[in-house]
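[DERIVE STRUCTURE TOKENS]
===
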Amino acid sequence: MSSIPPSTSSSDEPAAAAPSARTRVRRIPEFARYDAATVKDIVDAALVCHIAFAGPDGVHCIPTGCWRAGGHLYIHGSNGSRMLRILQSGVAVAVTITLLDALVLARSAFNHAMNYRSVVVYGTFEVVPDAEKPAALAAFLERILPGRQATIRPGDAKELASTTVLRIGLREAAAKVRQGPPDDNLDDLDWPVWAGVLPMRMTPLAPVRDAACDLPPPPHVISWTDRRLEEPGLPQSPAAA
């Protein structure tokens, strides 16, 4: 028995196919999701991705902040970043995002599992033109905390010039999702041990004021603890539609 959420496709609408041979999920293929909506939901629920690439001194896998606008996943960093310099050269990459939703406790050690949502994106990054950089970075800040962008000092010309913004298309991407109870062997169902799911999520905690700040918290800070991180459908900037 498979523990996956029901498909959102109607009986008249076939499930989306893998966009390429390397995106096809081979291990437990029924967990695969190739539709753009699922991929975007998972990307939108993440604050961090991991980027794997080969450089002159070997293979690397580096975490970095990320956000989505339209059909692209964006990252940014200093012009001096080794990773960004290598990615600008057109090197092939694999970008991964994983959201852990639960520990799944089965009746045997072998059948313990995790519930998760994950995405792998293949392709190459491209440089975001200077004219588009301010809007892209504003979308990132608004993604992190809606309402923050309107209250802060905007980046100046020097700061923008020292920052590189890259993006990669989501055309060659696949999601893999497991949700549900343990998948126990029938012979184990009578084993006298508790079995089930231990749900988890990243939870915002109370804000901590900087010692040099004597201002009351604005509404977007006060509402911070009301947010549910790593959930599909987080508030997005208009560019993320």
